[in-house]
Amino acid sequence: MKTLDELKKLRDESLKKMTMRYQKDGFRVQVGMGTCGIASGARPILNAFLEQCEFHDLKNVTVTQVGCMGECAHEPMAEIIDESGQSYIYCALTIPMVRQIVERHIVNHQPITKYLLSERKDK
Amino acid sequence: MLERIQVLICGGTGCMSSHSKEIKKAFEDELTLLGIKSEVGLVLTGCFGLCEKGPVIVVYPDETFYSHVSVTDVRAICEEHLLKGRPISRLMVNDPIAKTKIKQMSQLKFYSKQKRIALRNCGQINPLDINEYIARDGYMALGKVLTELSPEAVIDEVIASGLKGRGGGGFPTGMKWQFARSSQSDTKFVICNADEGDPGAFMDRAILEGDPHSVLEAMAICGYAIGSKQGYIYVRAEYPVAVERLHHAIEQARSYGLLGDHIFQTDFSFNIDIRLGAGAFVCGEETALIKSIEGYRGMPVSKPPFPAVKGLWGQPTNVNNVETFANVPVIFLRGAGYFRSIGTEKSPGTKVFALGGKINNTGLVEVPMGTTLREVVYEIGGGIPGKRQFKAIQTGGPSGGCITAKDLDTPIDFDNLTALGSMMGSGGMIIMDEDNCMVDVARFYLDFTVDESCGKCTPCREGTKQMLDILNKICEGEGTLEDIDELERLGEMIKKTSLCGLGQTAPNPVLSTIKHFRDEYLAHVTDRTCPAGVCSNLTHFVIHDNCIGCTKCAKHCPVNAISGWPKQVHILDQDLCIKCGACKKACPVGAITSEPLHKGVSL
């Protein structure tokens, strides 16, 4: 290491790995991982969320898993809670859907209504 | 892949001794088995502070706080919490008031009342990974100092912060640096005093084990300020984990170019080496410490000349304590004004205390100066276990004194504690309840200083021994009233005539217990009784008629002196009894008491 700028760069690099210990606000992604969720493939979905967060370099997102969310028929599901506390439940997720959701909803703050559980029920 | 969950396992001394290393191993095995190893981060951190509840584990991002975790619990944590997201409530801490489980670390009163500056990274980062320290703005203070400030400006900033030495003396750190800087010499030294010897104090150990880089960074800043190229850390060999982590930290800092030649492309070069001490208490005294580093017996020399003028190998030397150094980077990161805004006018900043003795939350706490003793004992410390009555706090270890219940509301700072006849010392706090005999406590501390006296000056070598003999006599029931006066006379003399701090403060525990608990001394010499029931020659234990016959006392008795059938009043055989008091502690209804000898033996 030679300069202060290099140190700052290293700090920001290292901070990425540790943000979860200090970041308390921002988006929270909860993937339903009851037996139903796991059986219908919630684990790849969870990993996809993590990969996408890393890809977009998102620091204020907490990805975590929760138990059965109740609508087992529509698993895998994920609840996204934004900064204001508003919650959105996406259902029947696939990995391409996760990419879109992270890009549009979390990065650009535009929920994708057609994937929401509330939309699905109307059909 | 980015980690989804991070599991922080306490790697402090307390938790290590209750198998936190094995717990980490078990986590590794279990996570591999479940196939989720890549998404879960495992970190062995420094001390979390709440040693009473160890081994402690914190699971992020939700900050779930698990206490008393054993190796067999690991499987449940992995399968339930890490895999399925269901936290395990049986391992969480109970909230004594609301009767519910406390889920998050920040909800614990123990943590919410604290202000952590010196311990800012302990329990937060992996001490073996320099990148985690850098992520927490590590070495930024050094970078700022080297590229923006002149050595004089550095010293001015430390003086402005009002930081005082945390090792016990309470001397302003900035002034000390100033003295070392104004001494003319090409070679100067920086020494970190990590020879922590007070019984019951372990904050320096926790900092070295949990956040070694903060000390290295501060030593380099100090080196720049006083014009030194070489630093030494004098740490006792009985802290093997601290030594190992320091070695590792120094290696890492060197490989990153944060120690060595031309740090941050400036002309400043600085190196740090470790010197091991054999664990002598007197080597915490700076001149004795310097002698020990030079290879001689650790014996103090008279001051002046002070180390700042003529120290290690005759060169100007600055000696600071570990906790003092750990505060320094914060002063440069957040400014002297921020540091001054915490604590009191005369003693800014925080102080780390090691709580021990009769208290619920044994462990390390860091509070702003000016916090009252009552807050520390009852709110952070959680009060006295077993519904016992508070009696006194011993602060400052073998150099300090006792503080009684009437002074519990005193705000803690250097001057207030000295005014009460005790001292800050390095920050050990031993809490005592009604079952502690103050004469015995004084004897314990004096016994320690007699052992640790280096023997160079007569008052300390002979005087403390004489005092100890008198105390032994009193505890055995052969003391007289003149003995108490003699203790006071000797104590004052030793204080005035000893060479170094060890001797000058050695009589303090005796003098302060005589001052606050003279009635207990009088009970020992005139009534020939020990009110607390500790001194075995002056007491005997009696089982009263309210005994419920639960047989607990009989089970705890080491010499089988108690007999009796269940649900009947038990009988204690006075001839066999060794007066250890185990039965009194075990009794659930308080039917066993210690009585003065002359009250007669009821069989």
Q: Kindly state the percentage of residues in helix of chain A.
A: 40-55%
Distance between the termini of chain A: 60 Å
Percent helix of chain B: 25-40%
Number of DSSP strand runs of chain B: 19
How much of the sequence lies in strands of chain A comes to: 15-25%
Mean pLDDT of chain B: 88
Q: Which stretches of chain A are poorly predicted, pLDDT < 50 over at least 5 residues?
A: none
* Order of SSEs of chain A: HEHHEEEHH
The radius of gyration over CA of chain A amounts to: 16 Å
Largest sheet of chain B, in brief, is: 5 strands, mixed
Largest interface: A-B, 32 and 35 residues
What's the overall geometry of chain A? elongated
Structural class category of chain A: alpha+beta
In quaternary terms, these chains amount to heterodimer
Q: Give unreliable regions of chain B as ranges.
A: none
Name its key features.
heterodimer; A: 123 residues; alpha+beta; four-stranded mixed β-sheet; 5 helices; 4 strands; 46% helix; elongated; B: 603 residues; alpha/beta; five-stranded mixed β-sheet; 24 helices; 19 strands; 15% strand; globular
Word description of this protein:
The complex is a heterodimer of chains A (123) and B (603). Chain A is of the alpha+beta class. In chain A, 46% of the residues lie in helices and 16% in strands. Chain A is built from five helices and four strands, in the order H-E-H-H-E-E-E-H-H. Chain A has a four-stranded mixed beta sheet, with helices on one face. In chain A, helix 3 crosses helix 4 (95-107). Chain A starts with a helix and ends with a helix. Chain B contains 24 helices and 19 strands. The longest helix of chain B is centred in the last third of the chain and has 18 residues, at 458-475. The model of chain B has no long low-confidence stretch (mean pLDDT 88). Chain B is of the alpha/beta class. In chain B, the strands form six sheets. Chain B has a five-stranded mixed beta sheet with strand order 12-11-15-13-14, with helices on both faces. In chain B, a hairpin with a 7-residue loop joins strand 17 (562-563) and strand 18.
